[in-house]
Design brief:
Length: 165
């Protein structure tokens, strides 16, 4: 049976578009994430789902904290920038204005809002892993509406890499 009807139905779920940043010992990275949700009021906790093959997964597994930078609706270019892979060797945060959150994670100064999280749990979930963060600090940094997948920007499954001939 085709999985396309399931994929089509799943694609109707709306999500925010954010940049998750991680930093450790002067080494930093960020990636665009939309599989993101609040999961507890008290204490405030959120979860993100990260592909097990992403460069950033090792960072998240070995770092005790991360920050979620919610983007403004006019920041599609920034979302596309952080959706690029890290294996090119270029630093995705290079040249951008960042502040350091109390946990040490970089925060994008131009973001709509940020959530500074301490990693409290992780869980394998199919081809992704869930990371649960307790939100220790956060603030709204700008006016305006959040960037969401309603704009047409969406998380697509990466195409399998072609075998080299
Ligand atoms: C709109 C959008 C949403 C995305 N959401 C996720 C997500 O929730 N989880 C994920 O693992 N990758 C997501 N991605 C893909 C990653 O941002 C992308 O694969 C990135 O290159 C990974 O960065 P890294 O190589 O630095 O780890 C999304 C991409 C886009 C364009």
């Amino acid at each position: 049976m085709s999985e396309q009807p399931i994929l089509d139905a799943l694609a109707r779920i709306p999500y925010p578009v954010a940049v998750v940043t991680v930093g450790r010992g002067g080494v930093e990275n960020g990636l665009t994430v939309s599989w993101l949700s609040q999961v507890s009021f008290s204490p405030p906790q959120i979860m993100i789902a990260i592909d097990n093959h992403h460069f950033s997964i090792d960072f998240l597994r070995s770092t005790a904290n991360f920050a979620v930078n919610l983007l403004r609706e006019d920041q599609r270019d920034l979302a596309a920038h952080f959706a690029g892979p890290s294996d090119t060797g270029r630093g995705k945060l290079e040249g951008l204005q960042v502040d350091e959150a109390p946990s040490g994670a970089p925060v994008l100064r131009s973001a709509l809002a940020f959530l500074d999280c301490e990693l409290v749990a992780s869980h394998p979930c199919g081809d992704h892993s869930l990371f649960i963060g307790e939100v220790l600090h956060g603030a709204v940094l700008a006016d305006g509406a959040p960037l969401t997948t309603a704009t047409g920007m969406r998380y697509h499954r990466a195409r399998p890499k072609k075998a080299s001939s």
